Amino acid sequence: MKAKIRRCIKCGRYTMKEICLNCGEKTKIAHPAKFSPDDPYLNLKIKAIVKRS
Asked: Which H, E and C letters describe 2-41, residue by residue?
């Protein structure tokens, strides 16, 4: 199933469009990726999240 709700990168508003109707910026999918403990890239994802914090 394809995620439909999206969030604007700039203003933070939620929409279903790829471009925000409020400010004209690109939007991204609002839901996080599915988690699996068997994911071969799990260590890389954790390092990326810790690095951002």
From this structure: CCCCEEECCCCCEECCCECCCCCCEEEECCCCCCCCCCCC
